[in-house]
Structures are given as C-alpha cells and as structure tokens.
Amino acid sequence: MTTAEATAATDYELVIGLEVHSQLLTASKMFCRCPADYANAAPNTHCCPICMGFPGVLPVINEQAVDFMIMTALALHCEIPDFSKFDRKNYFYPDLPKGYQISQYDRPLSHDGYLTIHLNGAEKRIGITRVHLEEDTGRLAHLDGGGDRYSLVDLNRAGTPLMEIVSEPDMRSPEEARLYMEKLRSILVYLGVSSGKMEEAALRCDANVSVRPRGQAEFGVKTEIKNMNSFRAVERALTYEAQRQIEELKAGRRIVQSTRGWIEDRGITVLQRVKENSDDYRYFPEPDLPPLVVSREWVARLQAQLPELPDAARERFERDYGLSTYDAEQLTAERAMADYFEAAVKAGKASDTHARAKAVANWTLGDLRRLLNTASLDISVSTITPAGLAELLDLMDAGTISGKQAKDVLEKAFASGAAPSAVVAAEGISQLSDTGELESIVDAVIAENPKAVDDFRAGKSSAVQFLMGQVMKRTKGRARPDVVTPLLQSKLSQA
Amino acid sequence: MAELWQLTISEASELLRRREISAVELTRAHLDRIEQVEGNVRAFVTVTEAEATREAEQVDRLRSEGAELGPLAGIPIAIKDVISTKGVRTTCSSRMLEHYTPPFDATVMNRLHDARAIMLGKTNMDEFAMGSSTENSAFFPTRNPWDLERTPGGSSGGSASAVAAGEAMAALGSDTGGSVRQPGALTNTVALKPTYGRVSRFGLIAFASSLDQIGPFTRSARDMALMMQAIAGYDRLDSTSINAPVPNYAEALTGDVKGLRIGVPSEYFVEGTEPGVRAVVEQAIETLKSLGAEVGECSLPHTRYGVAAYYIIAPAECSANLARYDGVKYGFSSKQPAGSLIDYMSETRGAGFGSEVKRRIMLGAYALSSGYYDAYYLKAEKVRTLIKRDFDSAFERFDALISPTSPSVAFKIGEKIADPYAMYLNDVFTIPANLSGICGLSMPGGFSDGLPVGVQLLGPALGEPMLLRIADAFEQATDYHKQMAATPSTKKKGRSR
C-alpha cells in the first residue's frame, strides 16, 4: 500500500452488508417432490410439471426446508414469528418458469439475529436482518453455434430450496466480511443444512459496500458486488471496491448506486447495471399457499435437536482437550474436521488425553491436512481414518516407529489406503532399540571417526550430532535416538 | 320414453345399474346429440369421441363382470377447457394454448376417472376464464340453446350450453366471480360454486388463485349431489384445499325446508336488475315460504364494493398467473424476429393473448406496482375482509341467503362485448361469494319472456348440503329445472356415419 492509499484508508470507513444465499440439503425441491440434488443429473431430468411451471400446477411447502430454516434461525439467534407467509416476486426471465419466484417479502420466517466473529482475539457481533426461504431459478447456457447465438435452459435447479440470509451493514473491513462468511458457512455445515460449497454456488454471496468519511453518521452511496465465488474472492473484491470508491470520492466524483461484478482473474469490479430506482417486482402474497404458522412446539422440537455449533465446540475442545484457542478454532471451523479429531482421539490407546489430543491436532492440521489439500479431498473421505491416525500415533508412542518414519508411513498409508500397521509390517519399518546391537554400531562409529572424538574432547558438542548422524546412516535411520544418545555420551566419556 | 340425452344422471344411473341401457348406448346418444346440435350451439372446443367410446366400453365390461360401480360410472360429462386433461389438449380457449396438451390430469379428472365417468370433450369458454359471455373465446362464441342469438353467459358458457342442450349430462366449469353460476342461470341449469378449498384446484389453469373454484353444472340438485360426491375433498397437492370430511350430499336432500331460515339481502334487490328477473326471484321466495321456510331480510352493506375489489384482486393475481406464458416452454411462441428477450416475450404475449386478457394483465400489474399497491391491492383486500364479515354476521341469523344470480337474462351476442364495464356488472351478485370463499348455487327459478332466470342460494363455508337441500325441495315444488331448450338441430337425428 502506498502512503497515499494508507492515508485514504484511514480517512474513510468502509461499511459492508452481505446477502448470502444458501442451497439447502433437502431431499426434494421447495414446492414439489423432484429430487433437489441435481449435481450429476443430465439437463432437465430432475423436473416435473410443478417446477417447470406448467399451467394448473400448485406448490406445496417442503416441511424439511422449513425445519432447516428454523434451525438456522435458532443458530443465528433470530426471532421466529408465529406467522409468516410466502409472496410472489414477479419478473420475466427464461430461467424462471412461472414468471415469478415464490419468495418471502414482508413477513419472513425469521428476523433480527446475530452471528459472532473473532477478530484479533476480540469478539464482534454482526447483526442478521432476516433469514427467509425461497426457490432457486433454473440455469441458462449461452451458446454460439456457428454464428448463431442461442441459449439453453436447464430446469433441474428450478424450484430447489434457497435460504437467504441478510446481514446488517455491520462489517467494517473486507476481513470481517470474510470471517462472517466463514463463520456462517461453518454454522450451516454444522447444522447439516448446507454443503457450504461456494465453488459449486451452493453458497452465494452478494455484498453491499459503501464508504464514508470517518466520523460521518450517514452511510455513503452503496454498490452491490456480485460474482464472488470464494472466501478469498469476497475479501479481495471488497478490498478493491473500497479502494475504488475512496479514489472516486477523493477525485471529487460521486458514487453511483449500481451493481458491479467481480472479475476474478483481473482482480477488479466492473459496472453491470445502474439502479435508478429500486426494482419493481410487484410483490404480493402467494395465493396458492396458506400463511405459514410456526408453532412454539415446532420451534422447541428443533431447538432440542440442534447440534453443537462451532463456537461451543471450540470452547469444549479448549476445555476438554487442553488445546490452544488457535488449534481449537482451526479444528472446529469444519464440522468434518472436528468430528475426525474427536474420533481419532477416542480411538487411540494413549493414557494422557491432552498429550494425545495435541498430537492428533498437530497431525490433523499439519501433515494430514497437507495431504488432503494436495489431493483435493475432504477429510470426511480421508483414506486415513481416525482409527488409522490413532494407530499411527500408538505405534510412535510404543517406540515401534520414529516420528520421521511416521510421516513416511502416513504418506504411504494415505496413498494406498492401507492401515498404518499394515504399511509398517509390509515395508519392514521398525526402530532399532536393541542396546547390544546399537552398542556395537556405536563402538564401530567411534573407532572410524577419531577426529570427531578429538573434537568432542576439545569441547565441541556438535561432534555428538555428527556421530549420531553416522549411526543413523549405518542403521538407515532405524536407530532410536533416545537409546543412541546416552550410549554415545557414555562411550565418548570413556574413550 | 324420453330420449337418453334428456335423462338426469340419477335416472340414467338407475337404468345402467339395471343394465337396461349400456354405457356405450348412453355415450353414443350424447355423441349423436352433439352431432345434431353442435353446429348451432358450439359448446365444444374438442370432442373426444374415441376415448369416450373406449371408456364406455370398459364400464360395460366391468359391469358385465359384476363390478360394483358408483352412480357416475358410464355417465357422459363435459369438461371446461381450463381443466388439465392428460393427453387431451387444454386450450383455455386461447391462441396461447391452442396446441397445448397437458402431461397430467387435474385432481378432479382423476376423481372422475375413478368414478368411471365418461369425458365427452372439452368445452369452450372466455379466454382464460375472463369474461361473462364466452365471446372472449379466441376460437368462436358459444350460443345459448334457449336462443341461438344470445350468449350462454360465461366464462363457463360451453359447459353450461352443453348441459342445457343435452350434449352432456353434467359438466365441470370454474367460477372465479360467477363463471359457473351466471351461465347456469342463463341456461336453466343447476350450477354450484363450492366453498373455496372444497374441490382441489390442482390442474385447474389459474386465473385468480384465491378466487377460482371448480364447480359442476347439472340438470337437478340430486345430480349435483352426485357430482360433488365425486369431486369434493382434500387434496395433498392443493395447499388451499380444506382438510375436512366430505358429507354424503345425497343424504342432505330431505325434500323439506320447514323451519329453515332464509335471508333476503336487501343490497341484492336494487335497481339495475331486470324486472322479469326480480319477479322470478320474488316468486321463488314465495314458493320457499309456502314450503315452510322462514324468510327474513338481511343486509350485506359492503356488497356494493365487491365488483371494484374483485377487479383489483382478480387482475392482480392473473397478472402473475399468466406470466408463465412467455413462449419459452410450451404454447404459442412468436416467430417474429426479436431484438431482445423482452421483445420476444412481448411479441409472443401480444399475439397470443386476446384483448380482455391483456386488459386484465395490465390492470393487475398496475394495481401491484410500487406506489399503488397500498391504494389498490391492499385496499381491495380490506374490502374483501369486510365482505366476509358481512356474510359471517348474516349466517349467524340465516341458514342460507337468496338472490338473483344475474341481474339479467341471457343477452345478445355482441350486445355488451364492447363495454367491459357493463359486462363486469353481470357478476355483481356472484362476486361476493368468491371474495368471501363461501358457497353459492344457481338453480332454475323460472322464466322471463321465455328465457331462463337463475335464483342464487348462498351458504356459509361448507354449506353445500344446505344449498342442495333447498334447491332439491324447490325442484320438488316446481318443474322449471325439467324444462329443456328446444335446441334447433343442424343435422337429422340419428347416426350419420
């Protein structure tokens, strides 16, 4: 950042609010019985007259989607009113088969909640304006067939449930926005209501961004940023847009209320549409659906079934496993990771839970995560099972293999899918801990390296490391250091 | 003996059960009747002769195998072309859906198939059920069998004329603001708009979702009971359908109205109603009194705002319901080269819809627009609530209300078509029942200058048994419902092929 930029950044305050859409992991679509999972389906195979908007069809509310919505509302500390309703949002587009989207306008299923993010060791609450249910649109493919441009419509996605989560304009930096998205995703995945996959557009984020001179009470003119397909993109796009707006203002120009698209490979936002007035979607109550009355019993039942959420899991990991806040946060960000960790700790034979937990954390967040990332695999499908990792650590604790060997075993087991013990057996990996055998090797090494012995006598402690290296070379790394070191020490003092 | 096409369902059903006639004979008689008079009446958009014959043969086969069949088995009926029929084109009498064939059956069709009723074909209507004369059909107007110069009313004019002319023993229509009851009144048929939610709307092509309700036409209250028995009931596919047990409608026909309290709403007897209509309704009230009913006056003060509220709410809903006809998925698509997507959709909708449909879409879109919503849609919804309250208090004192169905008898083709407002006033007495969700029935009440006059009975939600009971008792005391139009034939009687 140049000096000028740094000054600008401190003169202005950034205001960010996010609108997040999440697909829901329901079995069927929002208003019909078609399967909601279309990931591997051929175009237009997961649809029926209802989600294709045929004349005469009627919607029926998917109760599981409402369950998921209420669970999310509870996790986000939202109010859930008794009375809610669906509305029609009218606009024409070929991916919207009915010519209107069934959404919720003025009486959403929930409103006024918050989510907590952790920033530089401090907690910050980001307000949630509302969370509501709606249906997704189909997808268009724009093609160019020999100069003849045309578009194809795939309605597999049409009518799948979508949950919209609107935040208050409470975020003040791109980093806060990214942390909000990460925490929100984490909560949704913990709840089991969303896959959380931004790269598959299962989780989508639009941002409203404005800047204002520091100290000014009213908000600046905002722009809406779309097309951010990863957490990193959210942070980068908002950083870019904030800077752009500040430069506009500094140059004496005004910000135009507009929609801008993030161009990932160029690292910029570009103008898509100027919003002169707010769009007129002619919302009105959906007459095909009666109002949704959410009983207190319904809410209570779901409250009772609510799983542990990331913040609670993090606190418990710190408390029960003696982990650092950092490790606990890393492990609990992903529910699958947290589950893996706990299963691995429980599967092991270690008597000291805290020491074992620390070891499991190190291996899970270190070597295993690296292997998984390289292979682009989710931890839930890791070839090294939690029991496998526990077995590896047990082999280390028993002295059967060294830490260095363990890394090797982990990689081999990860690649082959075999159990670590099987890898150890098949590869003949073991440590040399027989004192008699090691003694004769130490004797031989000392005999062959008189200079090192002289160095030792001259007070150079590095001579011991050199001789240890020679022992390892001879044993191809199998010698147990904790046996060799005292042997060397005593032999050298005697020599 | 009467011709087969003159029988009521109850009579024909008994003959079928005793195997004195076959379903094939009965169906054939109606197909022949269609052939005789259809050139004059023009009730049908599509006649499904082959399917009807096949279904009738199946009923006869089942009966010969000793199967226990219900009262509608083998009964030929007609279906308004707004109700989805699997494999049979369903046009809504619109260019937009002229070649559209639904891949599924409406719930009412499934129920009628289960009852083994025979579908003769699909009947003409005002385009997308918007109109009161069937002149808004994109194909041709349907004529009133009582006077071919006149309309049968609408929008279910095809169904009404088919039943009145003996082309079908019963028919289904749809009633959004009077579209079953008004043509029923103008054609001397019994016509029922059930309570909102009593009959599933799944497969009924929507005009105004919160007002639409499928209702039958028959030639007697007893036949109406049979039709309702078959089609009424909760449907999982229609979230607005009522999950309440279906009563035995025929059991309600006691023939007795002694002690029943019947209210006469003063707002329904005001200027604008033809004297001949008024005279018939007053005579009907006297008849019911003579049968022992207790008649008293009541007031429904918000009636006068009904038409205004209706012409906000119904167009608003239709503007969304008809948005799906964009030329992308099914139905008419413009072949004009279009500059943009919106141009293409505008071309399609501009050419595919008739002028009344376009008028209502524009009215509705306007009423829902930002800045106008509160003044129009929201205000209309408030009026709706007031009209509901009017009925609630009236039904605390009365078992049913009585009024004219329509302010006039059948009017001439072309007479009102140029004046939408005059046309809209046809529904002044029928609209409040749709706005409030209650049930309403039009029964043949007599004649004015040789043209039928309908008497409307209004009942509270799920009050159909009461309305059927009163209509049946009235039929016992009169014979208006038995009179059939002397529909002129265009062909000689009998099979021509």
Provide a descriptive summary of the structure in words.
Chain A is α+β, with helices and mostly antiparallel strands and 495 residues long. Chain A has three domains: 3-302, no CATH class; 308-427, no CATH class; 435-494, Arc Repressor Mutant, subunit A (Orthogonal Bundle), CATH 1.10.10.410. Helix content of chain A is 42%, strand content 20%. Chain A has helices at residues 3-11, 63-75, 174-191, 231-250, 296-305, 310-321, 325-332, 335-347, 353-375, 386-397, 403-416, 420-427, 435-448, 450-457, 462-474, 481-494; strands spanning 12-23, 83-84, 87-90, 100-103, 110-119, 122-135, 139-145, 148-154, 161-167, 203-213, 223-228, 258-263, 268-274, 284-285, 292-293. Chain A has an eight-stranded mixed beta sheet. A three-stranded antiparallel beta sheet of chain A has the order 4-3-14, with no helix packed on it. Chain A has a two-stranded antiparallel ribbon with strand order 2-15. In chain A, a hairpin with a 4-residue loop joins strand 12 (258-263) and strand 13. In chain A, helix 11 crosses helix 12. The longest helix of chain A is centred in the last third of the chain and has 23 residues, at 353-375. Chain B has 497 residues and is an alpha/beta fold. Chain B has a domain at 9-253: Amidase signature (AS) enzymes (Alpha-Beta Complex). Chain B is 37% helix and 13% strand. Chain B has helices at residues 9-17, 23-41, 49-64, 107-114, 157-164, 181-187, 221-231, 275-290, 306-321, 341-352, 355-368, 374-397, 420-424, 431-436, 464-477; strands spanning 44-47, 76-80, 118-123, 170-175, 190-193, 213-218, 261-265, 294-298, 400-404, 439-448, 451-459. Chain B has an eleven-stranded mixed beta sheet, with helices on both faces. In chain B, helix 4 links the parallel strand 2 (76-80) and strand 3. In chain B, helix 5 runs parallel beside helix 6 (181-187). Chain B is globular and about 65 Å long. The two termini of chain B are 25 Å apart. Chain A binds chain B through residues 49, 52-61, 88, 90, 92-94, 97-100, 153, 278, 280, 282-284, 287-290, and chain B through 83-84, 90, 92, 97, 100, 102-104, 106, 201-206, 208-210, 236-240, 316-317, 319-320, 322-326, 328-330, 341-342, 345, 365, 368-370, 373, 377.
